[in-house]
Amino acid sequence: MENKLYTIIVHSENFAGLLNQVTAVFTRRQINIESLNVSASSIKGVHKYTITAWPHPDTIEKVTKQITKKIDVLQAHYFTDDEIYQHEIALYKITTHILEQNPEVSKVIRRHNARIVEVNPVFSIVEKNGMSEEITSLNEELSALGCVLQFVRSGRVAITTSCFERVNEYLADREAKYRRSKEEKEPA
To answer: Can you list the residues of the chain whose pLDDT is less than 50?
Structure first.
């Protein structure tokens, strides 16, 4: 069985050192992280890590379980591309002179639904949101035209295609258990 790209979504409380613990799980198994994005989630006090990697299918479940066992991790789940909606953002610094002299550059930018966000006499900045393949394709086409000075892309951001967020259910259940425990301890 061949390795495939998985997206691991981790929800955690925001404590220093947790990112190091999570990435150490990959390091111990000699799995290279393709992309990593960490940000606040829609839930106050909860952060979301979106990690992509190419582990063997037999390994992904073990990695996810190891991450879940970390003290400050609320939940971790892995997904294939058909179970999530994902996007990346990329910025391309291109030579303004070539942009102005070669109409093909503008055509490529428009064909890829990218947009020019900055133009000055020396360079221009092009922004592209989309799937990883689209971002790579635009970079290849612009590079072939000899105009790319710099290229940078973000890590993947992803949400599940299911109708509910698993961490919301987990937090609601945890809160209900806390309330029941508190009520049991109160004198009648």
So the answer is: none
